[in-house]
């Protein structure tokens, strides 16, 4: 057996996929495809074909393919599915690098009046047709980049000794505050949809040392911005014996790794999206750090005179701060009062906590939130009470500080904001297959 396991199909009509054509130059192949677009001039028809793995141009020359195949090609409607047979040609002029000299077409299903035509459509129309919009070249490129980030994430954490642990989705405790929770009935009890797996990951870190999770996250935020989803995916690493600064090192190396992986493995997708990659090329650890105090000062210098110490930053503030740096920038040491209850106060200045938000360049905003966690039982209990949280609900979480408590830190990276930044897509709605937004739960 080779390095990569192969799927063996016997008797399947489809012999190869578009992603494999480069291994079949000069050969006749059959591929199951959909018609993405077409144009014809005189005795030649150009078919833009897709099969899910990629796109390729099929060239149907009347004199070579014959009258019947040529007429079928010319009259085919957009999104018709068929088996195409042809010879693979390398062609530098073709937008896809390869061409298929078509010799046969076997229609599977004719599509009638496909709603998304090559002309421009409005966003709401495209969102209503998200189940079809996903087929477009642009959406294909974004999803491939998302997939590469997920792949690189597993690779990074697996090769650095982390264990993947899956926290629950239905929970009885709320790490990030109680206002943005989705409530649900859990038989006779009240439950919530997870808004972070962090507390469970802390338990896991005490059992496995270094852990990470990757799962859906739900926030009933009434925010209608280009950065907010109601349901999004978060990667949450948690590390025992890691202090604040150790966690920042992991974060900058992890983010550099995923950026490099996308640059190396998604060249065509980035090109398709028209992404200027010059800024991404500069993303390598270490990242600059700025304290909350200095960020306030910087904002005052930049004309945001109204912002006062103790207030949280909004999107315009984050964008203004990020503009001063070429790479993602950490804003550290926020006031304790505007951060969750579990963050470790700075021993030298207890009014600020050992935390950092990582702000992406080019206006994409915060992609990571993280901190060192309180490891002292009494302090954690006091914070739970200060925040008016139920001591009973957090009993198990307090237990972690009763039995061999250690310094530990962790963070959460929002996948969709990261995909938006790396692929250069303006709005997070295009970075998840079926976005859940303030006014949208369909399709
Ligand atoms: O800063 P947040 O709220 O951090 C936590 O939930 C921590 N418990 C994570 C941890 O330490 N384990 O969220 C983390 C990240 C944000 O930086 C952002 O990228 C993303 O999650 N995020 C959202 N993404 C899309 N839509 C939303 N409504 C988001 N809210 C947060």
UniProtKB/TrEMBL annotation:
Keywords: Aminoacyl-tRNA synthetase, ATP-binding, Cytoplasm, Ligase, Nucleotide-binding, Protein biosynthesis. Pfam families: tRNA-synt_2, tRNA_anti-codon. It is found in: Cytoplasm. It comes from the Bacteria. One of its GO terms (cellular component) is cytoplasm. InterPro entries: Aa-tRNA-synt_II (IPR004364), aa-tRNA-synth_II (IPR006195), aa-tRNA-synth_II/BPL/LPL (IPR045864), Asn-tRNA-ligase (IPR004522), Asp/Asn-tRNA-synth_IIb (IPR002312), NA-bd_OB-fold (IPR012340), NA-bd_OB_tRNA (IPR004365). The keyword NAD does not apply. Its main location: cytoplasm. Its EC number is 6.1.1.22. GO terms for biological process: asparaginyl-tRNA aminoacylation. PROSITE patterns: AA_TRNA_LIGASE_II. Residues 143-443 form the Aminoacyl-transfer RNA synthetases class-II family profile domain. One of its GO terms (molecular function) is ATP binding. It catalyses: tRNA(Asn) + L-asparagine + ATP = L-asparaginyl-tRNA(Asn) + AMP + diphosphate + H(+). Belongs to the class-II aminoacyl-tRNA synthetase family. PANTHER family: ASPARAGINE--TRNA LIGASE, MITOCHONDRIAL-RELATED, ASPARTYL/LYSYL-TRNA SYNTHETASE. Homodimer. NCBIfam families: asnS (TIGR00457), PRK03932.1 (NF003037), PRK05159.1 (NF003483). This is Asparagine--tRNA ligase. It comes from Heyndrickxia coagulans. The lineage of its organism: Bacteria, Bacillati, Bacillota, Bacilli, Bacillales. The gene is asnS.
């Amino acid at each position: 057996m080779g390095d990569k396991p192969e799927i063996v199909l016997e008797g399947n009509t489809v012999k190869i996929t578009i992603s494999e054509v480069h291994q079949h130059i000069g050969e006749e192949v059959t591929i199951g495809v959909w018609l993405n677009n077409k144009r014809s001039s005189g005795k030649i028809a150009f078919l833009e074909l897709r099969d899910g793995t990629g796109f390729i141009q099929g060239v149907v020359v009347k004199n070579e393919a014959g009258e019947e195949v040529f007429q079928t090609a010319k009259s085919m409607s957009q999104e018709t599915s068929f088996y195409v047979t042809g010879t693979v040609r390398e062609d530098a002029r073709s937008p896809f690098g390869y061409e298929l000299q078509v010799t046969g077409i076997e229609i599977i299903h004719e599509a009638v009046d496909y709603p998304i035509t090559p002309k421009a459509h409005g966003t709401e129309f495209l969102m209503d047709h998200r189940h079809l919009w996903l087929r477009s070249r642009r959406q294909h490129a974004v999803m491939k980049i998302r997939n590469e980030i997920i792949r690189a994430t597993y690779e990074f954490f697996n090769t650095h000794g982390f264990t993947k642990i899956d926290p629950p989705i239905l929970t009885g405790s709320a790490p990030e505050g109680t206002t943005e929770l989705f409530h649900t009935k859990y038989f006779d009890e009240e439950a919530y949809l997870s808004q972070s797996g962090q507390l469970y990951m802390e338990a896991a870190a005490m059992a496995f040392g270094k852990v990470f999770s990757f799962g859906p996250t739900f926030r009933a935020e009434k925010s209608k911005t280009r950065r907010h989803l109601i349901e999004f995916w978060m990667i949450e690493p948690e590390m025992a014996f890691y202090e604040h600064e150790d966690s920042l090192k992991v974060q900058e190396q992890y983010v550099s790794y995923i950026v490099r992986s996308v640059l190396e493995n998604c060249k065509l997708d980035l090109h398709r999206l028209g992404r200027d990659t010059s800024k991404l090329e500069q993303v390598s650890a270490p990242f600059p750090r700025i304290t909350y105090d200095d960020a306030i000062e910087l904002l005052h210098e930049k004309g945001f005179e109204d912002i006062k110490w103790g207030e949280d930053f909004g999107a315009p503030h984050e964008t203004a701060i990020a503009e001063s740096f070429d790479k993602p920038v950490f804003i550290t040491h926020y006031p304790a009062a505007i951060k969750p209850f579990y963050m470790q106060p700075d021993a030298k200045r207890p009014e600020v906590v050992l935390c950092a938000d990582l702000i992406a360049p080019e206006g994409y905003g915060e992609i990571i939130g993280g901190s060192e966690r309180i490891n002292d039982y009494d302090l954690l209990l006091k914070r739970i009470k200060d925040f008016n949280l139920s001591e009973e609900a957090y009993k198990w979480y307090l237990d972690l500080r009763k039995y061999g408590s250690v310094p530990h830190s962790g963070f959460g990276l929002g996948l969709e904001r990261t995909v938006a930044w790396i692929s250069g897509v303006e709005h997070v709605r295009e970075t998840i297959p079926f976005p859940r937004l303030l006014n949208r739960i369909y399709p």
